Amino acid sequence: MSKLRVSCFSISLDGFGAGPEQTLENPLGIGGEALHEWFVPTRTFQKVHGQEGGTTGPDDDFGARQFANIGAWILGRNMFGPVRGPWPDESWKGWWGDNPPYHRPVFVLTHHARAPITMEGGTTFHFVTDGIETALAQARQAAEGKDVLLGGGAATIRQYLRAGLIDEMHVAISPVMLGSGEHLFAGIDTIKLGYRRTEYVMTPNATHFVLRKG
Amino acid sequence: MSKLRVSCFSISLDGFGAGPEQTLENPLGIGGEALHEWFVPTRTFQKVHGQEGGTTGPDDDFGARQFANIGAWILGRNMFGPVRGPWPDESWKGWWGDNPPYHRPVFVLTHHARAPITMEGGTTFHFVTDGIETALAQARQAAEGKDVLLGGGAATIRQYLRAGLIDEMHVAISPVMLGSGEHLFAGIDTIKLGYRRTEYVMTPNATHFVLRKG
Fold first, then answer.
1. First vs last Cα of chain A: how many Å apart?
2. Chain A residue with minimal CA distance to B184?
C-alpha cells in the first residue's frame, strides 16, 4: 500500500520548520540552515549530492529511509523557489540546478499553472493548481505503488496533516532556537487527528521521532 | 547576583508544558504526567520526595541543579492548586501535603488575596495579587542573595519570559506528543528577547537545553 510520508523534516527546539525572512539567499530563513546540520554530514546526504563518504549511524539510517521506496514527491511552491504570484517567465527551475536530487516525478503545489519541466536525471516538475488532494492523487499514480514523499515546507505539511492525509512522519528536532518562522505543529492536534509516536531515537545531533496514523 | 531561573520544565515533542483538561485528578492535564518520566526515577527527585536511591547521570545532574542555590520559589496559581476564582475557604494548601518539597518561601501569583500559610519543613506560601514584577521583588528579597526558582506552569513562565525577566531556563523535551494543552514557546520570540541556547544534552529519556539571556 502506497503511503504518503514525511521524512527528515527538521524543526528547531521551539518548533519551527524554517526561520523568519525567507529569501533567495536564505531559502530556509534566518538561522534555518542550522536545522539540517544533523543531516548534511551523513553518507546518504553526501551521496544524494554526488559526494563520497559521510557518517553512518542513526542519523544516516533516517536519511536512507527517506529515499527508500519513493515513487514521487510533492513540494510546496515555496520549497520549489522564491517566486511568488504568477510565474513571470519559465526561467526558475528550482534551487537544485540541472540535475535535481529527486530523480522522480515531483508535484509542485501552486495557484499558477505552468507546463511541466523535464530536468536531467529523471526529475520532472509538474505544477498542480487544484489543491492538495489532486496533487496526492497524481503523485500516487506516478509512484506506481511506491510511497509518495511530501518534502515540505512546513505550511504544506501542515495542510496535509490537518487533512489527515499523511501516513507516516519523521521529524528531527535540531539543537537550535529560531524564535520565529514557520511553526510545524502550532494549532494542530496530532492526537485528535489519530497520530501516535512510534519511534524515538536520540543522537548527539538531533532528536528523531516518527508519528504514524492509526 | 541573584538570578530568576526555570529548571526541569518539561515539554512534549510538540511543545506543550501540560496536556489538555487539567483537573484535580489530572493536574498536568491528559497525558501530562508522561512529561516527567525522565525526572521521577532520578536520585534528586526521589530524595526530594523522601525516598532512597534513584538514578544518577545527566538527567539527575539537571535535577540537582534545580535545587542548588535556591532561596525562594514563584508559582502560578494553577500550579498551586485547581481552585479558580476567589478562595472559597482556607482549606486548599497545595498539592503536596503538610510538608511540601519547597522548604523555602513560595510566592503564589493570584488575583485573590489570602493570608500566608506556614507549612511544615520551612515552606511558607505567600499570595501575591499585584503582578509578576512584585512577586519577583518579594521573592528576591526573601531569597537573600540566592536564586529565585520559577516553578511554572507554562502560562506563568510565558509571562515572565515575555517580560524578559528570566535569566536562565532549563527545558527538557520528553518523548511524548500531547496534541493540545499549554504551549511553552508559541508566539514568543526568544531570539528577539535576547535569549541564546547555551547547553544541549541528550539522554535516552529527554532532550535537555538551557537558554540564557544576553
1. 15
2. A14
